[in-house]
Amino acid sequence: MKNLVVLGGGESGVGTAILGKQKGFNVFVSDKGAIADKYKKVLLHHNIDFEENQHTESKIFAADLVMKSPGIPDKVALIQELVSKQIKVVSEIEFTSEYTNATIVGITGSNGKTTTTMLVHYVLRKAGLDVGVGGNIGDSFAKQVAEKSFENYVLELSSFQLDGIENFNSHIAIITNITPDHLDRYEYNFDKYIDSKFRIVKNQTENDFLIYDADDEAIQNWLSNNKIKSKLVPFSMEKELEYGAFLRGDKIIMKLKTEDILMNVSELTLQGKHNTKNAMAASLAARLLKTRKETIAESLSDFEGVEHRLENVQKINGVQYINDSKATNVNAAFYALECMDNPTVWIVGGVDKGNDYSDLMPLVREKVKAIVCLGLDNQKIIDTFGSVVDVLVETAGAEEAVKVAHKISKKGDTVLLSPACASFDLFDSYEDRGNKFKQAVKNL
């Protein structure tokens, strides 16, 4: 019996443990921190051996195979030592892909991947396909393959998950865009981060497809310097294409075997330039999987959106409160500010991943009337925007931030939580941050 060691007792770790046990491995889960009660219950239910708040090296080095959770960097000593002992270390998606023949749509990118993943899943489900959704959202890919085994999967894939693949392949790969993010994991080298995203095409053949943003400079540069086997399916908002999806006036055109008018941009439930791009990417994926264009258009016009992504919370005294807690980098905050039509009180801040806020300057000058900082260290925000906005206030919690925003906003304004940073200084996660913001708005 082979030994499978799972590092990390979160969603992907526990899913892998369940699948590993089902496939006949002797499984041991080890987490350096505490394991959440809901996951402990699952491990106990499946009689899976685990430890928390420590790594017992003798047990870990007895592994034939190690699955490490995406949150553990490659450069930590334990991983380096496993590699030097020639013990294979893989990611959850790599481990799981051995056990399914399903058609996979894999979606990566710095921003828009959750929305695009949910959109593709929604369209395919409406078209009657047997389809699961996973990766960074919902149940882990591993758990689904163990318990449900769909014919198709739509997976949201972070660069960390792609770093750990050898043979994993997406029949349809989507790269939404690439902007500097998580550079702390890539030695502050943007090229390494770009290469990491493009691992999604590593195992593609000429029967597979890559859907990508043809307006994105980083993607275009990489493609012009590297040969790939799969068929290129671009989308653009700036130019008409020979093949792919583009805008003609305010209509979305899809040109694959034939040229079709898909729908008018105004009919999309999700507004904003970036959402038009997400819709194009999702449409192309669905069309390549033989979905009727009527079904695609109908789905895009009644899709509800993603929690914590430009989510309308409530209107109070004529002020609209918007929760965009999922904006954990500058580019995501850029999209949010770009969508604002009213004078905006912007709640920003948290753990900075090497952010350069200068890209936001024109939007802040044009749209932001006041800034409310929500983080422990706000110096960079203050240095960048202090002289640009009339009011800048520091706060140390969602409730305080909302109360201050409420005070300085007036009828016709928008209060936007779009932090451009990770949440771990004051919150458990971006979801926790978004939920506390929503609760604070309801308490006003």
UniProtKB/TrEMBL annotation:
<keyword id="KW-0133">Cell shape</keyword>
<dbReference type="GO" id="GO:0005524">
    <property type="term" value="F:ATP binding"/>
</dbReference>
<keyword id="KW-0132">Cell division</keyword>
<feature type="binding site">
    <location>
        <begin position="109"/>
        <end position="115"/>
    </location>
    <ligand>
        <name>ATP</name>
    </ligand>
</feature>
<dbReference type="InterPro" id="IPR004101">
    <property type="entry name" value="Mur_ligase_C"/>
</dbReference>
<dbReference type="GO" id="GO:0009252">
    <property type="term" value="P:peptidoglycan biosynthetic process"/>
</dbReference>
<keyword id="KW-0573">Peptidoglycan synthesis</keyword>
<feature type="domain" description="Mur ligase C-terminal">
    <location>
        <begin position="308"/>
        <end position="421"/>
    </location>
</feature>
<dbReference type="GO" id="GO:0071555">
    <property type="term" value="P:cell wall organization"/>
</dbReference>
<dbReference type="InterPro" id="IPR005762">
    <property type="entry name" value="MurD"/>
</dbReference>
<dbReference type="GO" id="GO:0008764">
    <property type="term" value="F:UDP-N-acetylmuramoylalanine-D-glutamate ligase activity"/>
</dbReference>
<keyword id="KW-0436">Ligase</keyword>
<dbReference type="InterPro" id="IPR013221">
    <property type="entry name" value="Mur_ligase_cen"/>
</dbReference>
<keyword id="KW-0961">Cell wall biogenesis/degradation</keyword>
<comment type="pathway">
    <text>Cell wall biogenesis; peptidoglycan biosynthesis.</text>
</comment>
<dbReference type="Pfam" id="PF08245">
    <property type="entry name" value="Mur_ligase_M"/>
</dbReference>
<keyword id="KW-0131">Cell cycle</keyword>
<dbReference type="InterPro" id="IPR036615">
    <property type="entry name" value="Mur_ligase_C_dom_sf"/>
</dbReference>
<dbReference type="Pfam" id="PF21377">
    <property type="entry name" value="MurD_N"/>
</dbReference>
<dbReference type="GO" id="GO:0051301">
    <property type="term" value="P:cell division"/>
</dbReference>
<comment type="function">
    <text>Cell wall formation. Catalyzes the addition of glutamate to the nucleotide precursor UDP-N-acetylmuramoyl-L-alanine (UMA).</text>
</comment>
<dbReference type="Pfam" id="PF02875">
    <property type="entry name" value="Mur_ligase_C"/>
</dbReference>
<dbReference type="GO" id="GO:0005737">
    <property type="term" value="C:cytoplasm"/>
</dbReference>
<protein>
    <recommendedName>
        <fullName>UDP-N-acetylmuramoylalanine--D-glutamate ligase</fullName>
        <ecNumber>6.3.2.9</ecNumber>
    </recommendedName>
</protein>
<dbReference type="GO" id="GO:0008360">
    <property type="term" value="P:regulation of cell shape"/>
</dbReference>
<dbReference type="InterPro" id="IPR036565">
    <property type="entry name" value="Mur-like_cat_sf"/>
</dbReference>
<feature type="domain" description="Mur ligase central">
    <location>
        <begin position="107"/>
        <end position="286"/>
    </location>
</feature>
<keyword id="KW-0547">Nucleotide-binding</keyword>
<keyword id="KW-0067">ATP-binding</keyword>
<comment type="similarity">
    <text>Belongs to the MurCDEF family.</text>
</comment>
<keyword id="KW-0963">Cytoplasm</keyword>
